[in-house]
Write a structure and sequence with these properties.
single chain, about 80 residues, mainly alpha, 2 helices, about 0% strand
Length: about 80
């Protein structure tokens, strides 16, 4: 098992997507109210990165299941 470098914050893989969305909303609210803006901005960046990572994985898995439009035809011939 590899460990993350000290400068990089740990990933938020242990949180569910719903929890990430709730915490994103809380961080946005903290920013609006100007409470701990540095921490809220950092947390928002981490949450957005984790959500994007999950979204990319979902799209990649979904794209792998899409059947070809014209079976038997070479993709470059179209």
């Amino acid at each position: 098992m590899t460990t993350a470098p000290e400068s990089e914050p740990p990933a938020l893989r242990f949180m569910t997507t719903r929890e990430l969305l709730v915490h994103r909303r809380l961080a946005q609210r903290a920013l609006r109210r100007r409470r701990t803006p540095d921490q809220a901005t950092a947390m928002l960046a981490r949450i957005e990165a984790e959500l994007a990572r999950r979204r990319d994985g979902r799209m990649a898995r979904a794209a792998a299941k899409v059947p070809p439009l014209y079976p038997g035809w070479d993709k470059d011939a179209l």
